[in-house]
Design brief:
The protein is of the alpha/beta class. The protein has one domain: Creatininase (Rossmann fold). The chain is built from eight helices and four strands; from the N terminus they run αβαβααβαβααα. The termini are close together. The model has no long low-confidence stretch (mean pLDDT 95). It binds zinc ion and manganese (II) ion (MN).
Length: 268
């Protein structure tokens, strides 16, 4: 039997139907953003990374991967540089919540009962939680109560030991990692042709007052659009991050969905 794609949208409907109808095959939904990432990275980093994590993880746990959400919630100055920056193209929170809710309910209609929302954009976090919560509430109203949804962001699987190894000069937090060492290293590992290290802007980590002001004051944000420097990024660090996060997520999904590790959809 020829090898089958893990991408749900590359399958024909009868093959897809056979895989999801009984509810056993998990569906991974990458949720990204269209957002500037400094002078050295393309604007779909937050889509590419969770999509590629999803592909690798799906192959290991026998899951399918849905079309990613290519747009996300608005960029915030303290975690993405701000929504005023050129290129960044965002959804209102209510739009993301409703779109995610709709997609979850459609997959459940097909038979899917195990879903994982694979976040790649910091600002999406609470809107994903809201979309999941409202979807589960509406499904309960329809008498469907056997749906389980895991919500995760890949960077939360980087262990403290890995942080110490990768950030010997100190770690400023995931919010400031916009276009910094984490994303740049992973891109160097997975999509080196899309990284322009010769154009990266080296600067100290952004620092902000402990409050926000609206409308946003552009002077708060480094002119590069990144919030920490990508200077110390490397393919070697990307390899480590890829391995640690993939393994952590595989373990989490295997436990939460009571999966048989090593089963792949191609064997179904
Ligand atoms: Zn990003
Ligand atoms: Mn982002």
């Amino acid at each position: 039997m020829s090898r089958q794609s893990v991408f749900a949208y590359e399958l024909t409907w009868p093959v897809y139907d056979r895989l999801v109808r009984d509810g056993d095959t998990p569906m991974l939904i990458p949720v990204g953003a269209f957002e500037q990432h400094g002078h050295h990275l393309p604007m779909h980093v937050d889509v590419l990374l969770p999509s590629e994590f999803s592909r690798r993880i799906a192959e290991q746990v026998g899951a399918l991967v849905a079309q990613p959400f290519a747009y996300g919630y608005k960029s915030h100055p303290k975690s993405g540089g701000g929504n005023h920056l050129p290129g960044t193209t965002s959804l209102d929170g209510a739009t993301l919540v409703n779109a995610l809710k709709d997609v979850i309910k459609e997959f459940v209609r097909h038979g899917v009962r195990k879903l994982a929302i694979m976040n790649g954009h910091y600002e999406n976090s609470w809107f994903i939680v809201e979309g999941v919560d409202v979807a589960l509430r509406e499904l309960r109203w329809d008498g469907i109560e056997d749906v389980k949804i895991v919500v995760l962001s890949y960077w939360d699987f980087v262990t403290d030991a890995t942080i110490e190894k990768l950030y010997p000069d100190g770690f400023t937090g995931w919010d400031l990692e916009h276009g910094g060492v984490l994303e740049t290293s992973l891109m160097l590992t997975l999509y080196p042709d899309l990284v322009h290290m010769d154009r990266m802007v080296d600067h100290p980590p952004a620092s902000f007052p402990p409050y926000d002001v609206y409308p946003v004051d552009p002077d708060w944000i480094p002119v590069s659009g990144t919030l920490s420097s990508p200077r110390n990024a490397s393919k070697e660090k990307g390899d480590i991050l890829l391995e640690v996060c993939t393994r952590g997520i595989v373990n989490a999904l295997t436990a939460e969905f009571a999966l048989d590790p090593g089963t792949s959809v191609s064997a179904a």
